[in-house]
Specification:
Strand content: 25-35%
Radius of gyration: 16 Å
Number of strands: 6
Structural class: alpha+beta
Shape: globular
CATH topology: Alpha-Beta Plaits
């Protein structure tokens, strides 16, 4: 049974990828697809254009901010499918090398 994981890319700037990094990311994405690990991936807009929404109890609050207010933020992600956490960790290491950024690995909860 496989498990799904999310790998968040962490950056201190927006749209800071170089041509070489994009080529390495494309190659990594191709590798994920070829080995059946690919689910989805994408880049994220800058935290400065985030909208924090809270509709608990119907309050309808919207604020132009990010939950994470620090020098680093999530700038992208990979959603991967793996047989175990060891494989996910290996792929996260490869993703970090490809994008030349720190990444955060988290398992998705529930049966997949």
């Amino acid at each position: 049974m496989s498990k799904r994981f999310i790998v968040f890319v962490i950056d201190s700037l927006s749209a800071s990828g170089t041509a070489e990094e994009f080529a390495a990311i494309d190659a990594f994405n191709d590798q994920l697809r070829a080995h059946g690990h690919w689910v989805a991936a994408g880049g994220l807009a800058a935290p400065s254009v985030s909208l924090l929404i809270d509709n608990r109890c119907g309050i309808g609050r919207r604020s132009a901010e990010s939950l994470l207010a620090g020098p680093e933020s999530y700038s992208g992600f990979w959603l991967i499918d793996c047989k175990d956490s060891h494989t996910a960790q290996q792929l996260a290491l490869e993703g970090s090398r490809a994008c030349h950024r720190k990444v955060e690995l988290r398992a998705l909860l529930g049966d997949h």
